[in-house]
Design brief:
Order of helices and strands: EEEHEHEHEHHHEHEHHEEE
Shape: globular
Strand content: 15-25%
Bound molecules: adenosine monophosphate
Largest sheet: 6 strands, parallel
Structural class: alpha/beta
Radius of gyration: 20 Å
Strand order of the largest sheet: 3-6-5-4-7-8
């Protein structure tokens, strides 16, 4: 294989400029020649306001595929009434600046009318159990919206692999189920959670936090770490839950939405902690008005 190196040692593949596309037809035309050439397509769906967590997904996709498509679309159907749809940060230029040096080939940033030309969709997704728990129970309709947009995007991009962060653990389980049960011919690739230096999971919503909220937001990851230590010492699930609830009271700006221990395999509730069930602590909490989520493997 011949790799051309420009002065300054930048591989040529990273110098091919990234393109921004907002229409489905244009994207399909562009991708058709790639499919015919037998190229693999990596896909990273996002809502923009990108940070190092998103960048890690894009980097992995670039490393594992011939061409990477990143979508940037603030999906209205996954926001409930009173949630932050209107104020969700839109930072397209900064997002492009972050992605271009990573070797991403295409940014697909469609408008709302492109993805939902019919307005409100006839088709709704309802899961038998997976959307009745955790964030699904707390945010009714959220996973319907996620499934609507991801099913559309899978059909538009037809990727070889699609990359999702384990920060949204329940989302990964739901989307793995979508892929498997509807036979989407692609691989769902879960990627590790990227954290700030102090341990706070990176999130586009962290930018809403004022300095005091930012300090207290650290509670989510430190409490998960504490739960992990206790699980390794052999404490029971109920004791972990008690500890989390008690610790929470120390933080005036935090309001716990849920803390639960679930199997990382299928989100069932383990009666006892056993490594074989891959138990995970999953937490959601409001920090001021901002709802944050995090999770951690316990054993
Ligand atoms: P979002 O833009 O919030 O919809 O996220 C787009 C993708 O990035 C999802 O697959 C998220 O799980 C993933 N993601 C967001 N934050 C992180 C993080 N801190 N670490 C790893 N992946 C993340």
């Amino acid at each position: 294989m011949l790799i051309l190196i420009f002065p300054g040692s930048i591989p040529i593949s990273h110098c091919i400029s990234m393109i921004l596309i907002d229409s489905i037809d244009e994207l399909r035309t562009k991708l058709r020649s790639e499919y015919f050439a037998g190229k693999s397509i990596g896909f990273v769906p996002t809502m923009g306001a990108l940070h190092e967590g998103h960048a890690s997904l894009a980097r992995r996709s670039v490393a594992e595929n011939d061409l990477t498509v990143v979508s940037i679309f603030v999906n209205p159907t996954q926001f409930g009434p009173g949630e932050d749809l209107d104020k969700y940060p839109r930072t397209l230029q900064a997002d492009m600046d972050l992605l271009e040096p990573l070797g991403v080939g295409i940014i697909f940033a469609p408008g709302k009318e492109t993805i939902y030309p019919e307005g409100e969709s006839q088709i709704q997704f309802s899961l038998r159990t997976l959307d009745k728990m955790l964030c699904g129970a707390k945010r009714p309709g959220h996973f319907d919206g996620v499934l609507q947009v991801v099913a559309k995007l899978f059909n538009i991009v037809q990727p070889t692999r699609a990359y999702f962060g384990l920060k949204d653990f329940q989302q990964v389980v739901v989307l793995r189920t979508l892929q498997k049960e509807l036979f989407f011919p692609l691989e769902v690739v879960p990627c590790p959670i990227i954290r700030e230096a102090d341990g706070l999971a990176m999130s586009s919503r962290n930018r809403y936090l004022n300095p005091e909220e930012r300090k207290q937001a650290l509670f989510l990851s430190t409490t998960l770490k504490k739960a992990k230590e206790m699980a390794k010492e052999g404490l029971a699930v109920s004791e972990l839950v008690e500890m989390v609830e008690a610790r929470l009271k120390e933080f005036s700006l935090i309001r716990l939405d849920y803390f639960e221990v679930r199997s990382g395999k299928d989100l069932s509730r383990p009666a006892v902690l056993r490594a074989g069930d891959e138990p995970r602590g999953l937490i959601a909490a409001f920090c001021g008005a901002t709802r944050l989520i995090d999770n951690m493997e316990l054993l």
